[in-house]
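for the recovery benchmark. tokens below, seq after
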């Protein structure tokens, strides 16, 4: 009798374990479905290659899910760092929003990243502008793209690239500038002080950091080697490539190029929690340097430099879960929709789309 009770209890436990495993399996399948659904976008992505200065750049052309075109186009210009064409999928919610306005998106991995040849740390801001101009020229030859409706989207470091491109190509239809800086030197100092405040640095730590910064500036002006920089500052993490990149670009200033932009319509996006760029300085400069009727400014008080919601970005767990389960919710409220509306409200945008010839065979 006792043995029977034991066998009955074991069967019950196994049934409970089996039921739990089945429930967990169903939950995993359900969550997998949610992840798949949330990370599926209304886009048609095509792998493309741009040949520029003897090297191949690997890219993505993201077309609206429906329609034959020709479509308007947004050419993406990355910020700092080793960025691939999708920015590790970060761009896709933005591409989808732009597609709702009838625009395709074009983005290339930086040289040396994800199939692109070369080394992005070899580039000056003018090199980056030349690469963007080459991407625009390539796109104008594509039958599914309306060459009259091509513009730029760029973030952070792209703030020194976008105005150069727009100043050199008067045919560009618009620029969307997200958290751009004006002056490389002032931006670096602002970022340093903001990070020190965030980290609760003491007055002594702040003074020491500023002294190291002044030393770095003197070394750059003197054309010092990376070894001389390391010896003077104790920063052994600085690579030769990175030092060379900084030396090429530390005098960057967007002021002259902004003045030369031919009145190109600009959507300036600034964030309330930006510790990388002085958003107030940027907005003031754009208002002073650009014609009033060409500038549209959108502020997002709850956003960080990347336009991710502040409360999401400051929590690793929340950031990870949101990126996996609801990537569109990463961005500040209104950010995606405001870009779509900006494109839809451009003068003659709808008329150009309606009157453009249809692409044969599509």
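predicted aa per position
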């Amino acid at each position: 009798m006792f043995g029977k009770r034991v066998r009955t209890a074991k069967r019950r436990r196994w049934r409970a374990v089996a039921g739990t495993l089945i429930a967990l399996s169903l939950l995993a399948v359900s969550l997998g479905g949610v992840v798949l659904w949330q990370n599926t976008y209304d886009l048609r992505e095509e792998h493309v290659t741009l040949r520029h200065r003897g090297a191949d750049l690997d890219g993505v052309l993201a077309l609206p899910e429906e329609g034959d075109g020709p479509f308007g186009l947004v050419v993406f210009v990355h910020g700092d760092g080793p960025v691939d064409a999708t920015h590790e999928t970060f761009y896709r919610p933005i591409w989808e929003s732009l597609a709702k306005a009838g625009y395709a998106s074009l983005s290339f991995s930086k040289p040396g990243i994800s199939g692109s040849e070369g080394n992005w740390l070899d580039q000056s801001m003018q090199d980056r502008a030349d690469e963007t101009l080459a991407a625009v020229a390539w796109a104008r030859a594509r039958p599914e793209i309306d060459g009259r409706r091509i513009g730029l989207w760029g973030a952070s470091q792209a703030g020194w690239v976008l105005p150069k491109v727009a100043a050199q190509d008067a045919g560009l239809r618009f620029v969307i500038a997200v958290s751009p800086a004006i002056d490389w030197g002032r931006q670096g100092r602002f970022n340093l002080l903001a990070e020190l405040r965030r980290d609760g640095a003491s007055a002594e730590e702040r003074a020491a950091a500023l002294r190291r910064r002044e030393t770095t500036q003197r070394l750059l002006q003197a054309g010092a080697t990376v070894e001389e920089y390391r010896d003077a500052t104790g920063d052994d993490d600085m690579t030769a490539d990175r030092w060379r990149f900084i030396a090429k670009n530390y005098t960057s200033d967007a002021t002259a190029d902004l003045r030369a932009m031919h009145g190109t319509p600009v959507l300036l996006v600034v964030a309330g929690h930006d510790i990388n760029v002085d958003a107030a300085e940027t907005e003031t400069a754009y208002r002073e340097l650009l014609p009033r009727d060409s500038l549209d400014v959108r502020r997002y008080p709850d956003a960080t430099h990347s336009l991710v919601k502040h409360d999401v970005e400051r929590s690793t767990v929340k950031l990870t879960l949101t990126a996996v389960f609801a990537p569109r919710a990463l961005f500040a409220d209104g950010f995606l929709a405001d870009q779509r509306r900006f494109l839809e409200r451009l003068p003659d945008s709808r008329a150009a789309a309606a009157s453009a010839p249809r692409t044969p065979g599509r």
